[in-house]
Amino acid sequence: MRVAIHSVDGRNYPNLALMRISAWHKARGDEVEWFSPLMPYDRVYASKVFTFTPDDPYLPPDAIRGGTGYDPASRLPPEIDAMPPDYTVYPQFSAAYGFLTRGCPNRCPWCVVPAKEGGIRLVADIERICRTNTGFRRDAILMDNNFLAAPLDFIREQSDKMRRLKIRVDFNQATDARLYNEQTAPIMAGIKWLKYIRISCDTDAMLPHCVRAMRLLRSFGYRKDFFVYVLARDGGMESALHRIYGLTSADPRAVPFVMPYRSLTDNPAEPSAGLRRLARWCNRAWIRNSCRFEDYRG
Ligand code: SF4
């Protein structure tokens, strides 16, 4: 059988679902390749993460479409979801990708995770994620939505393994600032981080939690930057600025990153020009460090 996989959002980031689909078909002796509109296929799988990415008009009508961008409730069949990802489809990426946990116990109204994933559950082990079909990888991008909501024993066991196996990690969906405490902070401060610890400061109420978490991690010896997601909504410019200035004055190595809010479930308009301008100023550190937003003319 000749099978095509297609990442409708683009190939700038590995799509784990497509990697598992590829592994599942190859295990059955099928040929798998990236979709080309000019080629004939027995089956085409298309995956889309964002609702605002337009569908590909060249996809055949019987293509199997999945992913949050098509349907937040879509899921891989369990036998495919259980497959280890096929890394040969993304030779340009050298890290391992995966989830140690899925889900989140919180119910933030803007977030698709609670409805899509449910509460927190343990799904994998760091050693299993790093042992890929192209060899053992010592950099791991972990896409957990709320790793610190897992039981403390699991957090400790996984971080011990990361240290023992010399694995550097990045929790790229951020960690929950509210869950740093005297138990979790020393564990997380002792991990080898690929670049930095990421936290989220999505509302004004999160600012004191983020400031406290950064101070606590510093007290346990963490020396690198803090990458902080700052969700910004239309009409919420003042709030976002308040958080940006609050973070950078609390820790000079805080790196705020503005994310203009776009719903994953509706099809909203582009973020406003004001929000895009705020993101342009904030997300380029050399601009943010050279002037306050109030003086930014760009
Ligand atoms: S804590 Fe994060 S993952 Fe959990 S519901 Fe809120 S935004 Fe979503």
Q: Could you tell me how far the N terminus lies from the C terminus, measured between alpha carbons in angstroms?
A: 53 Å
Extended strand count: 14
- What is the oligomeric state here? single chain
Low-confidence stretches: none
Written account of the structure:
By secondary structure, the protein is an alpha/beta fold. The chain has a domain at 1-93. Helices cover 29% and strands 18% of the residues. The chain is built from 10 helices and 14 strands. The chain has helices spanning 16-27, 78-81, 113-117, 126-130, 152-164, 184-189, 207-219, 237-250, 273-283, 285-288; strands at residues 2-7, 31-34, 43-47, 64-66, 96-98, 101-102, 121-122, 131-132, 135-136, 139-142, 168-171, 197-200, 226-232, 254-260. It has a 4-stranded parallel sheet, with helices on one face. Helix 7 runs parallel beside helix 8. The longest helix is centred in the last third of the chain and has 14 residues, at 237-250. It is globular, with a radius of gyration of 20 Å. The model has no long low-confidence stretch (mean pLDDT 94). Iron/sulfur cluster (SF4) binds next to helix 3.
Topology diagram in text:
Blueprint: E1 2-7, H1 16-27, E2 31-34, E3 43-47, E4 64-66, H2 78-81, E5 96-98, E6 101-102, H3 113-117, E7 121-122, H4 126-130, E8 131-132, E9 135-136, E10 139-142, H5 152-164, E11 168-171, H6 184-189, E12 197-200, H7 207-219, E13 226-232, H8 237-250, E14 254-260, H9 273-283, H10 285-288
Parallel strand pairs: 1-2, 1-3, 3-4, 5-10, 10-11, 12-13, 13-14
Antiparallel strand pairs: 6-7, 8-9
Helix pairs in contact: 7-8
The structure holds iron/sulfur cluster.
